[in-house]
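Narrative of activities, Objective 1.

The group set out to show that a structural description can be obtained from nothing but a protein's sequence at a throughput compatible with the screening campaign. Below is one input-output pair from the validation batch, recorded exactly as produced.
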Amino acid sequence: MWLVPRHSRGLTLRTPVPDVVRDALVRWYEGEGSEADHRASVTMVTKARTHGQWIACSCMGDTDPPPLMSAAYLSEAETYYLRRLTSKRQRRPEHASDCPFFREQAPQRFREKRSAEAPVIDVPEGLFIAHRLAPEKLAEAPSDSDPDDRSRGVTIPRLARLLWQLMDMAHVNEVHPLPARRGRNMTMASEFARLRNAATRLEIAPGIPLSAHLYTHIDPYERKAVFARLRKAARTWPEGLAPQAFLALYANDISGTTLFLGQGKELDLKTRVQYSGSLIGPPYLVLVVVGEHNPRDGYAALRAFAQPLARTSAFIPVHNYHERKVACDLLDLQYHLRRRGIALGFKRPLFDLPSKIGTLRPDFVLDIHDSTTGEIIETALEVIASEDPEYVAAKRHQLALLGKAGRVITARAATIDSHGTGAILKANLGIG
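Output recorded for this entry:
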């Protein structure tokens, strides 16, 4: 085994890896290593990353092009793993079938696996941090019974929950009834202002508010002002915590590792942009964490999570096209219902809410007050955006639970498209 320059074929400028270190790496890769094996492996992996090297395996002999591996850092899981660089197109060979590195060591991925019970989504605990100091640990290889992507159940990135926490504290997911004689005072600028205000109540390190390192425009990043402030703050940053900053940006589109922002600007990240649900088109609110993993590379935009919104002027989070359609319909319905003496407010919950039967998370909660009759209606509204059998089964389970907790109405995709949310409210609640 050797360390070789990145982007080479591994035949020149080889630095031999001592047999004792190679054996330790193999044992750790196979999940049988001791703590000493672990330390030796991490030392080699970090050395390879710092010096811009790949790991070349000797399983095919000394003269043929060797199979290559890169030491990758999975910041979401705070671990290193070895990524095999095999490619027929680039003429990179596979490992020998009896080589311990023949099977790829798969990284964790953000995948959703449908189940009858909705996953619990709680407010993240602790500091508002999404980047930690490079860990001294290496991911273990999956066992034979594990799927290659290690996806079990629903895994929600911490960056997603942090964005939802910020939005929830800013109350951008709540829409109050319209004032009696004026319109809605909501703009993109006012929504970003609400996020910045909420950031004053969150800490990214003890004594350091999120607002001190939160940016809602790309310009400070492009001018490198974000990096300069981080470098200055790093001198007194609490020990054991990684200095980091956040960008909360409006995006028009997402493609791989690139965010397409307003005014034709783009932002490239170190990893692919994560998102939940489906990419349903703009607008997106994206939370980006800026930090330093490799000192040689300096500070950079590391990761991002993109949340689809209802409108550019209403940062109501949605997860699919029909949730967006319902949210926009409700915003427009407020004006129609106000003329009839009915006040409509609503919330799009981001975290589980307490109820008499336990915690639940409906798609929407409506609060309606008819001033002519004095009637007050509170109801959950659940959107069924697909006819996929597993999806429908999960929704039926959710509807049964919501029905035990209180009133609930259903909005199916076909009815939303053909009649609109107003017709659904009129049919179920007798208003409109």
